[in-house]
Amino acid sequence: MLFSSFISRPFRESLCAAVRIISGCFQDVMKELVFLLLVATEASSRSRSSWCEPGCECRGDLKFTICSRTLFTQLPGRVAPSTELLDLSDNLISVIPENSFSKNRKLRVLLLQNNNISVVEDGAFSQLEFLQKLDLSWNQISTLTEGFSMGLALLRELQLTHNRLTSLDSLSFLHLDGLQRLNLTSNAIHTIQVRAFSSMSSLRQLHLQDNRLASLRSGMFSMLRSLEILNLAGNQISDMEVSVFKPLISMTLLNLADNKLSTMFFKTFQSIHTYSTHILLEGNPWNCDCDLQRLFRKLRSVQRLFLDDYYNLTCKAPPVLLDYRLIDVDSELCLAETFTVLIITVTVVITVLATMLMGERKRKKKKKKKHWTQQGELSDESDY
């Protein structure tokens, strides 16, 4: 009141009018800004939708494109160049053509599991130089050509479980220099050629369980100096060459459970020089003879080897020990057998020595008799 008393009425009216004008202008400006923002948002939304295939869900500024369970029979044509994760799982895709992802060079994760893929053309992934994970599990892939891995030098993880692969050669994974995890579980692999994994010097995990491998040959795992986990469970392995694991200088876990092993050689595991290696052997049809018991006594005495499931190993032969746990088989029987063998050996040696001694005596007797006969003949001649 005191301040307004010093201001004339006309001036106050002019001031209020000015304030109303300014307020009205501000509101008009705000309305225009809101309108422009809505227009920009709509334009951006339309731009995004033009890069998002119908049926797909695009998130995170088009970095994540989810197209799973959309019944696609072929690869979608509208995938944003900025996409880093593309999920095409659970569809009906059957072919991956050459250069399929030429517009998606920023892809880091590509999920193609659970489709009907039977053909991957050479160079299909050749443009994906930044790809780190590729999942092709649960498909119909039966062969891997040289061009399959072209351009995937930075790939870290490859999932090929539940396909129809039967053999692997030196061209199967030729360009996968940086691969660290390879999962080939549940295929029909019965043959792995020498140096099939030679290009993968960075590989740390190799999963080959539930295939049809019957034997392990030297050179099969050559160059895998970084390998830490080798999973061979659920195959049909009955034979292993002595030096097959020798190149695996970093191996910490070897899984040989559920195979056809009945016996083994100590040198096969003695050649593993890793500081600490855990070995799984349960589910094999062990022939629990004395040789096998001696083998496991030796293995358990090696400080760097750990037989994690030793107490679960069961016998399938001889018949008298069927389903016995190896740990429960009386080792004294083997000591008795060893003692018996020793007695037999000593008896044989004594018999041989006695025979040789008797033979030597007979030989000397014969010689002496012959000497006497000759002397008698000489004496008779002298009488004449």
Automatic annotation (TrEMBL):
Coiled coil: none
One Gene Ontology CC term in the entry: plasma membrane
Keyword Transmembrane in annotation: yes
Keyword Transferase set for record: no
Matching InterPro entries: Cys-rich_flank_reg_C, Leu-rich_rpt, Leu-rich_rpt_typical-subtyp, LRR_dom_sf, LRR_TM_domain-containing
Keyword terms, alphabetized: Leucine-rich repeat, Membrane, Repeat, Signal, Transmembrane, Transmembrane helix
Region (Disordered): 364-384
Membrane-spanning residues: 339-359
Occurrences of domain LRRCT (ranges): 284-335
Name of the molecule in the record: LRRCT domain-containing protein
Provenance organism: Echeneis naucrates (Live sharksucker)
